Amino acid sequence: MRVPVLVKVAVFALVVMGAYTYYANSIPQLRSEPPEELSLEGGNVTPEQLVKAGEGIFKGKGTCEVCHRIGQKGTRAPDLGGIGASAAKRKAGTSAKAYLIESLLDPGAHLVEGYPNIMPKVDRPPIGLNRSELWALTAFMESLGGTVDVKLDDIPKTAGSAAGGGQVAELKLPGDPKAGQAVFMGKGGCIACHKAGSVGASPVGPDLSQIAKIQTPEYIMAKILNPAGMGTVAGYPGGVMPATLGQTLTAKEYLDLVAFLLTLKGEGAAPAAKK
Ligand code: HEC
Ligand code: HEC
Asked: What pTM value is reported for the model?
């Protein structure tokens, strides 16, 4: 009897995803490096200092700039210019502040028209912001056309508790990144459409050089098996990424490929704007 490769891969993927979720939930404390965290709790902070700290997080640890720009359309996400004001009009009965906080903690709760549900919860890995950082970031966004009035108490107490300071231990998936790079460049055909660090150059699909910094392993794994099911990254054509990878790749090739993609954490925010 022949078991379709897709079924094999899907079962394999489910087991791996399950293992990952279990792992992530069971040992959130494990850290590979001392976390670099901002703590503002208990201190006397002026709104100006808070906004400045938030801007630093927006450009740095938050990795927001990889997807968003201010006053300019990014490739993957909406322009956040004036968001401090426009946030008040997004959801009836929701204040700008409440909407901004919800956008960070539960981005899928309200989708901006024309964009897919791809923004990760920013208090979870890989971004992993803590409560102070969420507070400062909200203040920074309020400052973009609105009034800075967010208090630390506005940020839910539970927020950031799964963050691990963004430094949760490196996940050990069973794949081999080197073999995965070969799949990326060879059988998978990914370089025909994607750049990934030093390999590939084509702008047909998004640059994947920092994908592991901005996306969860779950998203990356699901996108390969079912590109359309994950929505279409804004600014790119839908239905172009092959939907057959789950059938053509073996389970090993798939896991190696995922392991390779999870090494892509290019330094600094690449220009989000599409040339
Ligand atoms: C992987 C790409 C990605 C990253 C990283 C990302 N976002 Fe987003 N963001 C999106 C997308 C796509 C949307 C639109 C869909 C939606 O509403 O969830 C969005 C929506 C938003 C909105 C709502 C905008 C509006 O006009 O209503 C806010 C606010 C926001 N993001 C802030 C942030 C901040 C702050 C960060 C950094 C901590 C961040 N995002 C990181 C992709 C991203
Ligand atoms: C024929 C062109 C093409 C090929 C080949 C292709 N992709 Fe894509 N890919 C795209 C396009 C276009 C998008 C953006 C539109 C969308 O979301 O479907 C995309 C999106 C993605 C994303 C989401 C990026 C983000 O910013 O959220 C990932 C991850 C990805 N591809 C991985 C791969 C991998 C891995 C391979 C090889 C196995 C591959 N792609 C092969 C065209 C391609």
From this structure: 0.83
